[in-house]
Amino acid sequence: xxxxxxxxxxxxxxxxxxxxxxxxxxxxxxxxxxxxxxxxxxxxxxxxxxxxxxxxxxxxxxxxxxxxxxxxxxxxxxxxxxxxxxxxxxxxxxxxxxxxxxxxxxxxxxxxxxxxxxxxxxxxxxxxxxxxxxxxxxxxxxxxxxxxxxxxxxxxxxxxxxxxxxxxxxxxxxxxxxxxxxxxxxxxxxxxxxxxxxxxxxxxxxxxxxxxxxxxxxxxxxxxxxxxxxxxxxxxxxxxxxxxxxxxxxxxxxxxxxxxxxxxxxxxxxxxxxxxxxxxxxxxxxxxxxxxxxxxxxxxxxxxxxxxxxxxxxxxxxxxxxxxxxxxxxxxxxxxxxxxxxxxxxxxxxxxxxxxxxxxxxxxxxxxxxxxxxxxxxxxxxxxxxxxxxxxxxxxxxxxxxxxxxxxxxxxxxxxxxxxxxxxxxxxxxxxxxxxxxxxx
Length: 441
Fold this sequence. Notes:
Layout: H1 10-18, H2 21-39, H3 44-52, E1 54-55, E2 64-65, H4 66-92, H5 98-125, H6 143-153, H7 160-183, H8 190-207, H9 214-231, H10 236-245, H11 258-282, H12 293-297, H13 300-327, H14 341-348, H15 353-362, H16 369-396, H17 419-430
Helix pairs in contact: 2-6, 2-11, 4-7, 4-10, 4-11, 5-7, 5-13, 6-16, 8-9, 8-10, 9-10, 11-15, 13-14, 13-16, 14-16, 15-16
């Protein structure tokens, strides 16, 4: 007699709901909206007081405000999941084969370079060269938000569009991490940095052991984070390095890889708590005090960031990818055509989380802070709306048998939102092999 299937617990159902592609973006948007409303309400003093509450041991320079804890502490959890995802993609995911990854990688590089160029030109032409330090703000892509928009409005498009966007975003995350580490670090304490790297090395040894204990991994990770913070390097970098330590291949006879298991354990906390809390503290821009909304919107910084997110990202991704496909033997993934890059380009313009972080690092409590954050919110929202419109239009258009024009009929045309697509996503979450079928040459 077959045993009855066990029903998932309420906690498991909550985790599954949080990890849905549509949920992450919705939680971010909700948290940002609450913050923006509260920060401009008659009770805005309460929001400012909450953000400024200081907690933590002063002896080790961790007496930080709640807003800083959200940016340096909670975002480190998010960047840990980014590191885990990057490790998986490089070893066994979409970046494991350089030839297949080349087109989205080049698109991602151009999609970061063009917004930076847009920004520099805009602030220079508009006469605010003091704001040049914010050039990296529009270079980032919020993958949670972008995937949420794609899941809602991209139903019917081939799932290769999601894979292409994911690859773009993964490379985008990697480049954003490099930018933060290089351009937003000053006065490095080499001894503390060395100590942090030693802690990361110990974490690597423990996480690869046969039975790694969370009770041992968490203190080691905390030591690495504290020392990275003390070193003067943005503490989120510790999260990335720790994420890279997690094995992405099955070891010790385990049923699935540890990158999947760690992602499954930490992903819900990152998406359901860490990111929304950061968005809550970062998005609360006060525009009713001072010179008002008109003065903020007229700042060169606002115009530069908004234009760079919406147009710079689009031109970079679409332009570079189209050129590569037309001028080289490289081709887009199965079932994707150049026309699909228009909505993908707009999706990459949804900056949000990392863009807000870089805005805080670029303009800490300066005259440009409010304009930069409001531009990230407004530009990301406009990019999301344009992506939604173009996704629906693209999904309704007829598709031929060889969208990527490689001379071989497309095999994997599984549409986003179909039962087969949902099953593939579930398989990836469970750690099973769910690689899409590819053409054989």
